[in-house]
Design a protein that fits this description.
The protein is built from ten helices and six strands, in the order H-H-H-H-H-H-H-H-E-H-E-E-H-E-E-E. With about 280 residues, it is α+β, with helices and mostly antiparallel strands. The chain has two domains: about 190 residues, no CATH class; about 90 residues, 2-Layer Sandwich (Alpha-Beta Plaits). A four-stranded antiparallel beta sheet has the order 2-3-1-4, with helices on one face. The chain has a two-stranded antiparallel sheet with strand order 5-6. Strand 2 and strand 3 form a beta hairpin. About 0% of the residues have low confidence.
Length: about 280
């Protein structure tokens, strides 16, 4: 059941991305980031269907990335590519709301960002640069952000060579809004590692467990200057829970020392966070 639900969410996300392209970006000569941005550029010059291009460009990416990304992620991504290709071919290309390019850049970015975010939260993607960035990162340890920034920079440069600088500026806005919406939709999946040093670590850990349903690990440490033994709480939470952890720690001990670390990946039993109920639930 969980696999079917994930596949359905990926397809919904892919359909939203197609809506953003066909109703907001394409009618107003706007370009997005990633592989789809290349497809939109080629469409503006040669009118080659975006749906066909998306399918063609993703085939070698999928083949190349097979060994470097998880099998389930790749399967769900293939589902997303198929759904987006179909939606791009079925949804008519026309201006949906207004002819104002600024509004189309903003609302197009919102719709595309929500779609990409939904697909990513479901454990897949809509293909293209997302998969390539993961593969590059795992094989050569190149930061994913650097890969996306460099590739999108090339797309913007090529768009600028078309001669319409206004379209380039609107494209920058569309890419920015898309990225922000992806962050918003996927924020519950971003993990943070929190380390708390306090003489009242036991009380803080109990509050974290009781109020948030989160487990924590207690580490023994010794202060270099004071030579006093302290307990250090080690806990992994989602970004949405971070403020609550800090509130608990400083509420129990105003002098607590709290360190927040970026966490790329968590392997093992980690409970998802429900933003509506502010509780955790087991991963099926």
């Amino acid at each position: 059941m969980r696999n079917a639900a994930q596949a359905i969410l990926v397809m919904i996300g892919a359909a939203l991305v197609a809506v953003g392209y066909n109703l907001f970006f394409i009618p107003h000569q706007l370009v997005s980031g990633g592989v789809a941005g290349v497809a939109l550029l080629i469409y503006q010059i040669f009118e080659l269907p975006v749906s066909l291009q998306v399918l063609i460009y993703n085939i070698p990416i999928m083949w190349w990335a097979w060994r470097d990304v998880g099998r389930k992620f790749l399967i769900l991504t293939i589902v997303g590519i198929g759904a987006m290709t179909l939606a791009l071919s079925l949804i008519p290309i026309h201006a949906a709301i207004t002819d104002d390019p600024m509004l189309n850049a903003i609302f197009g970015g919102l719709v595309v960002g929500i779609g990409v975010g939904i697909a990513m939260r479901a454990g897949g993607s809509c293909g293209g640069l997302d998969v390539a960035a993961v593969a590059f990162n795992r094989r050569w340890s190149i930061p994913m952000g650097d890969i996306m920034l460099g590739f999108n920079g090339i797309i913007i440069f090529l768009a600028g060579m078309q001669g319409d600088l206004k379209s380039v500026l609107y494209t920058l806005i569309a890419i920015f809004v898309t990225g922000k919406m992806v962050d918003v939709v996927t924020s519950g999946t971003v993990k943070k590692t929190v380390m708390i040093v306090s003489p009242q670590a036991d009380a803080i850990a109990r509050r974290i467990n009781a109020d948030m349903g989160r487990g924590a690990t207690m580490l023994d440490a010794t202060g270099v200057y004071s030579q006093q033994t302290r307990h250090v709480i080690f806990c992994v939470v989602t970004r949405l829970e971070l403020s609550q952890v800090k509130e608990i720690a400083l509420g129990v001990d105003k002098a607590a020392f709290v360190v927040v670390l970026e966490t790329d990946q968590v392997v093992g039993r980690f409970r998802n966070y429900n933003v509506l109920t502010r509780t955790t639930k087991p991963i099926a």
